[in-house]
Structure formats: structure tokens, C-alpha cells
Known about the structure:
The protein has helices at residues 19-24, 65-83, 87-94, 120-123, 138-154, 169-179, 190-196, 223-237; strands at residues 32-34, 37-40, 110-111, 117-118, 127-133, 158-164, 184-187, 204-208, 214-219.
Amino acid sequence: MADFGGRVAFVEENYGDSALAARFGVKRYPAIFVDDVLVATPKDFGFYGTGEGAGNGRYAPLQSAASHARFRNDLTKVISLLLAGQKAEAGALAAPADTGEVAMLPALSYTDLDGRPVAPADLAGRIVVVDFWATWCPPCRAALTWLGEVKQKYGDRVVVLALAVESDEAQARTLANSLHLPFRWGLRTPEILRSFGDVSAVPTMLIYDGSGALKGSFYGSTPEIHRDAEARLARLIR
């Protein structure tokens, strides 16, 4: 932090006591933030949760000097961009790198919570918003409510797939029914997890255009994030 001449301070928060982590729906640690930009999640350091399999994150193996250097370099870039007032650029850099699996909308086939099948043909040629949420995540409810307003505004031009993460099915059904939103509600199955790659925090929202190409990744639920996401959607719809 000395490189920034006293303009940056380090704050350490205990597991379960971070309001910022709760706001982003980060349930596991370590998680690294610069201001309210999520820089790294447990998966970035190679730490995967139960049922998520195993794999290498951006900074794994954590013990290696090369991983430390890579993390330090990325963290320095994010801090520099934020100090320069370039928050959008910092968020884009900090977001987990897109893999080949999520750069294009996967060929999803699952049964939603209403018992209706979701198939690739249902999504072809349409703008698709995939929202990963959880019953235990308060910010997710704000994101879902906002998405409901977006869906009402754009109607059938946008399909919203709301996929519950690490959530009890009965609780997910109860919450979905209480919100009365025209989404295709579902549970994130192991197959869907593999298809979308590294989704480590909720709410996470992915926006795909009519050709299935990923056009935006948004992490968290703040007015600024919602504003940026809706601007992205508006450009796609035009």
C-alpha cells in the first residue's frame, strides 16, 4: 500500500462480520474488495465449496511466487483505476475472467420450479439475463425486485433465468412464489454449475445477446450496478 502514498488503507474483517461481503452475497472466504469492487473470491485462490468440484483459480496455487505476483499486479491495477475515478474499468478488470463456457450462453436444458422445461429453443434469438441468487442472500432480493421492473419494462424481449445457488428447494419455491415475478425460476444443478464456470458470489447477473454472446457480467446489488446493467440491456434492445 506504500506505493500509493497513503491514499489507500487496508481493512481486515472477520469471517461472518463483513457488511460488504453480506451485501455482495459472499458466503465463503477469503474475499478481497477495493472499496465496493469485488476483486477476488475463494475460487480465485483455488478454494472450492462442497459440491463444486476442484479446479485452479486465477491465483492458484496460492503458495507459488508467480500467483502472488499475479494477484499483486491485478490488485495494483484495480486500485490505480479507482484512484483515477475509473470505477467501471476497475470492475471489468476485477471480475473473474470469462471462460470459454460462459462467453456464450450454454445450451441449457432443465425443468423450472413450475415444472416447465427450459430448452435452448426457448432462448434462441432473445436477450437472456441469467441471475444467480440465494435464499440466504438479502441483496439478492433487491436484485430480483429490480429485475422484475426490467422485465415489466421490456416484456418478452428479455428472458430472465433466476437460478438459486446453495439453497433449499422448498425455500426457493416459497420465495419465488412470494415475489410473483415472471421469471423462469430454477435451481443451479451441478450441470449448470459446470456450464457457467466460476460463479462464486451472489447476486451475479450475466447478460447475453440474441446470438448468445456474453455482453455483461455484474456482481452485487447496488443502484449503480443496476443502472449500468440496464444501460447495457437498453443498448442491446435498440
